Amino acid sequence: MCLRVHKLIVLWLGFVLLTLVPRSCLSVEIDREGLPDTGLNTTDWETGALPPLDDMWELNDFQIAAKNVLGARWYASYRTAALDQVTYEANMNIWKKIRLNGYTFRDVSDVNLNTTILGYNFTVPFFIAPAAYAGHTNASAELSLARAAGKMGALYAPSIESTKTIEEIADVGFANQTMFHQEYVWSNRTLLIDDLSRIEAAGYKAIFLTVDNTGVNGIRVQAMRQTGELDSDSGHSASFTLDALAEIQNLTTLPIVPKGIKTAADAKTCLDLGFPAIYVSNHGGRVLDGVPTAVEILLDIRKQYPEVFEQMEVYADGGVRSANHIITLLALGAKAVGLGRSPIFANIYGEDGVDRMLTLLQAELQTSLQLMGEADIQNVVGNTTYINTKQVEVEYFGIS
Ligand SMILES: Cc1cc2nc3c(=O)[nH]c(=O)nc-3n(C[C@H](O)[C@H](O)[C@H](O)COP(=O)(O)O)c2cc1C
Ligand SMILES: *[C@@H]1O[C@H](CO)[C@@H](O)[C@H](O)[C@H]1NC(C)=O
Ligand SMILES: *[C@@H]1O[C@H](CO)[C@@H](O)[C@H](O)[C@H]1NC(C)=O
Ligand SMILES: *[C@@H]1O[C@H](CO)[C@@H](O)[C@H](O)[C@H]1NC(C)=O
Ligand SMILES: *[C@@H]1O[C@H](CO)[C@@H](O)[C@H](O)[C@H]1NC(C)=O
Ligand SMILES: *[C@@H]1O[C@H](CO)[C@@H](O)[C@H](O)[C@H]1NC(C)=O
Ligand SMILES: *[C@@H]1O[C@H](CO)[C@@H](O)[C@H](O)[C@H]1NC(C)=O
Ligand SMILES: *[C@@H]1O[C@H](CO)[C@@H](O)[C@H](O)[C@H]1NC(C)=O
Ligand SMILES: *[C@@H]1O[C@H](CO)[C@@H](O)[C@H](O)[C@H]1NC(C)=O
Question: Rounded distance, CA 44 to CA 38, Å?
Fold first, then answer.
């Protein structure tokens, strides 16, 4: 009884004190990590709680919302990059050095964003890239990513390290939906072969085979501080040679797209080995720190092996947070552009969040295209007339 009265008094005192504290002291202060300031107002947000979905107006907003909700451990697991994050920062900042060329006096009343990827139809040239363990954002995990992609007509390629199984994700897909699946080169060959046959049996149409973390993961410092573990034993083969790459095409009837191509030389190798496509990526800066951005890699391939773009499809990702980033990579020759962290961050709201993120990006893309005087996204692919990358080229190639 006595205890109960005490508790009530403490509660009452707490309430009185709270009402005396000025409003601003309760407001959420979130370090924005140098993301563009577009006026997102977090004053009324509550730490740890889902902010209103209506506050989300561009892709970076979802990162700040995720940071507010997830807590340090899981936010770091998604946000982290390797070592000094030179590549991560470069991915985020390269866009500031690029200018878009837009034209007026053209009919842009009927805009087309439709595209094909490996011959399959999609309504947008961007896709949800594989990202491990979506389940820490929302219990629906990868299922909401699959549903949202399906509703839009966008490609989704789940990670082999997903929270949900290969089959569970396939099962929530719509009848009209095409999905690809990511795979790692496991040192356990039985597992590799099992995965490939399960992926094929479940109805996925192609494999993104991630080839950029040979034997080890990158050293991801932000995440290590949270887990207290040096997370480097990936289970991936460390002896994945050229012969092994050639041979792996025989393990499945599905087309294989090597993911994580980060030099022009490797792009040419994949072309020579007869792959139908490559996926240029530095894995969101999470593997080898110091490697170039997708913009720089694509420029280098264009310079050294332009035939790559004529003879195979090229996809790219890394730091893509707006439609203008997509347009830039398309103009450099990418047929489709991947999004890693953004869908994961949007998934704190489940399917509704991913829907909104994709819809905002689609609206941005349609708008930018119209403002550039181009009605058909296909005319942008490989058409460098639409961009000025000279600032990047001077820094990357030097003046000769
Ligand atoms: C949390 C997280 C997990 C990832 N897991 C995988 C994975 O399992 N397989 C893979 O090939 N790439 C993985 N990636 C890399 C993404 O597919 C993609 O290349 C990268 O995130 C793109 O950069 P962005 O996050 O700046 O959009 C992961 C990325 C993140 C952020
Ligand atoms: C942010 O929102 C708060 C509370 O709604 C409001 O008082 C404040 O003026 C807003 N700040 C800006 C910069 O708009
Ligand atoms: C794009 O594809 C969708 C779905 O197949 C179709 O409904 C739409 O008419 C196409 N748009 C254009 C401009 O071709
Ligand atoms: C893909 O789109 C093309 C052009 O719009 C159309 O002719 C074709 O039937 C579509 N294929 C499928 C499988 O929907
Ligand atoms: C595929 O079907 C789903 C469910 O019926 C629908 O919401 C979606 O718009 C369709 N996608 C396309 C590209 O037509
Ligand atoms: C290799 O993978 C298979 C299939 O998942 C599994 O049964 C086996 O235990 C694994 N072997 C080792 C050494 O981990
Ligand atoms: C792949 O299989 C084909 C047909 O069985 C065979 O001719 C070829 O040598 C194999 N390639 C490799 C690299 O194993
Ligand atoms: C997942 O998202 C849905 C839809 O926004 C939401 O209702 C649900 O609360 C979220 N689940 C979790 C565990 O946060
Ligand atoms: C590239 O785009 C420009 C500007 O719209 C256009 O004039 C030119 O014909 C395009 N080139 C090709 C090869 O499509």
Answer: 17
- Ligand 2 within 6 A of CB of 44: yes
DSSP 173: S
Rounded CA Rg of the chain? 23
Is the Cβ–Cβ distance between 314 and 293 less than 8 Å?
A: no
Q: Locate the ligand 3 atom nearest the alpha carbon of residue 111 and give its number.
A: 13
Average pLDDT, the chain: 94
| Mutation test residue for ligand 1: of 184, 280, 286, the one with most atoms within 8 Å of CB | 286
User: Ligand 6: which residue has its CA nearest to atom 13?
Assistant: 188
Query: 121: exposed, middle or buried (C-beta count within 10 Å: 0-12, 13-18, 19+)?
Result: exposed
Which residue segments constitute the domains of the chain, with CATH numbers given?
92-397 (3.20.20.70)
Q: Which SS3 state, helix, strand or coil, does residue 131 take?
A: coil
> How many Å from the N-terminal Cα to the C-terminal Cα in the chain?
86
What's the 107 CA to ligand 5 centre distance in angstroms? Answer: 28
Ligand 6 pocket, residues with Cβ under 6 angstroms: 188, 190-191, 194
For residue 81, give the 3-state DSSP assignment. Answer: coil
Task: Judge whether 274 is annotated as a binding position.
Answer: no
The residues pairing with 184 across neighbouring beta strands, listed in sequence order, are: 210
The pLDDT assigned to 19 comes to 54
Q: Is 123 in the pocket of ligand 5 (CB under 6 A)?
A: yes
Both tokens of 286, joined, read 């999470």
pLDDT band at 1 (very low <50, low <70, confident <90, very high): very low
pTM over cut 0.85: yes
Ligand 6 centroid – CA 47 distance (Å):
43
CA 274 distance to own-chain centroid? 26
The distance of Cα 54 from the centroid of its chain, to the nearest Å, equals 22
